[in-house]
Write a structure and sequence with these properties.
The complex is a heterodimer of chains A (131) and B (232).
Chain A: H1 3-24, E1 42-44, E2 47-52, E3 54-55, E4 58-59, E5 62-64, E6 70-74, E7 84-89, E8 92-97, E9 105-107, E10 113-119, E11 125-130
Parallel strand pairs in A: 2-6, 5-11
Antiparallel strand pairs in A: 1-2, 3-4, 6-9, 7-8, 7-10, 10-11
Chain B: H1 2-10, H2 21-42, H3 51-78, H4 83-109, H5 111-130, H6 135-158, H7 164-192, H8 204-223
Helix pairs in contact in B: 2-3, 2-8, 3-4, 3-7, 3-8, 4-5, 4-6, 4-7, 4-8, 5-6
The chains are: A alpha+beta (131), B mainly alpha (232).
């Protein structure tokens, strides 16, 4: 077989398989989908909503109330690996990749104190102050 | 000019290994994609969002392997190289294989699995290729595989939220250019030093390596452990 024929066949095969994957894969990629802005730290019923935002290379400090379960989300200012949040509370790890501002990470009710957290790669840090 | 001669040699039928490189790419590609098609038909199509997540990276993994395997064939054909060339061969293959392997698995399974896989294949192939010049190439291959594996997985995890798929295409193109340049370097070195081809072989290793690499990558990507970040 001639090399030109082989090259043409390779291009055909790659285009076919690549096209199949792209079309059937719905073009979903790993980017942040910018949704509607969520208001900063709010409370709703028994569950508190805490919205993380980015401050330089770290998270902005957030505040929550003691004794109420917490739902953490991250607004669109948070980017890169900082969207993957890791809490280590009394030896138990709570972690989630908050791909969109609508996704949340649930934390149990906490007692008063300051809880440090980081992104999954340990590059960015933040504090959750529970009052 | 020897680059022109090299491209002519790619079409050559004078028994030189360079004349078999395009065929090797083709056989490897067919083997890898064939195995993927079989796995997809029997198993992977039942996995939700397989094509948009693992499928994309598996496709690029097969493309990358089909470019790495001809280089392995070319190096094996000449067996021995001067120290500088051998170190370059060990470093390039170790780094590219480690980086690509680590990158694809890092993008689907996380930093740990990506790094371990990247380092394992990078060091294995880097030392295998680098030993063509003795201990220096061996060591260079080992170091490059070690660094490439970690770097690949880390890059993928850090880019998760920043056009990872576009970055995959860019990284693949750059790696292809590096591997093509390595093929040219080997051709030029052997031509300048009038090195004769030492090994003539059929395509058993092409098919075997394509099958093994694709199967291991697919297996770990789909069924392997995942980090917290990926719901593990």
């Amino acid at each position: 077989m001639k090399n030109t024929t082989i090259l043409v066949m390779m291009v055909l095969v790659i285009s076919l398989v690549g096209g199949f994957i792209l079309i059937k894969g719905n073009n979903v990629n790993g980017n942040v989908v910018s949704g509607t802005e969520i208001p900063p730290t709010t409370q709703q019923g028994q569950i508190q909503k805490v919205v993380l935002s980015q401050d330089g290379y770290n998270y902005r400090d957030s505040v929550a109330e003691a004794g109420k379960p917490i739902e953490i989300s991250a607004d669109s200012s948070v980017g890169g690996c900082l969207r993957s949040v890791v809490f280590d509370i009394e030896g138990k790890k709570y972690s989630k990749y908050l791909k969109t501002p609508g996704e949340t990470l649930e934390l149990p009710a906490l007692s008063k104190g300051t809880y440090a957290f980081s992104c999954s790669m340990g590059m960015g840090y933040g504090k959750l102050i529970v009052k | 000019m020897s680059l022109k001669e090299f491209t002519k040699e790619l079409n050559g039928r004078n028994g030189k290994v360079e004349g078999e490189l395009i065929k090797t790419v083709f056989y490897s590609l067919l083997t890898g994609l064939g195995l993927l098609a079989i796995l997809y038909y029997f198993k992977f199509r039942f996995i939700e969002s397989f094509l948009s997540e693992e499928g994309f990276f598996l496709f690029f993994a097969v493309l990358s392997y089909s470019l790495i395997i001809p280089t392995i064939r070319q190096v094996r054909a000449y067996r021995e190289f001067a120290c500088m060339s051998g170190m370059m061969i060990g470093m390039t293959t170790g780094m590219i294989v480690g980086f690509m392997g680590g990158f694809y698995l890092g993008a689907t399974n996380g930093m740990f699995v990506g790094s371990v896989f990247g380092m394992a294949v990078g060091i294995l192939i880097g030392t295998w290729m680098g030993k063509c010049c003795g201990i220096m190439g061996f060591l260079e291959g080992m170091m490059a595989g070690f660094m490439g594996g970690l770097m690949g997985a880390m890059t993928a995890v850090m880019m998760l939220n920043d056009n990872l798929k576009a970055a995959t295409v860019v990284i693949f193109i750059i790696s292809s250019a590096i591997l093509f340049s390595l093929n040219y370097m080997i051709y030029k070195e052997t031509k300048d030093n009038e090195t004769e081809r030492q090994l003539r072989e059929d395509h058993f290793w092409t098919l075997a390596l394509s099958l093994v690499l694709t199967a291991i990558t697919a297996g770990i990507m789909v069924f392997g452990p995942r980090s917290l970040l990926f719901g593990g």
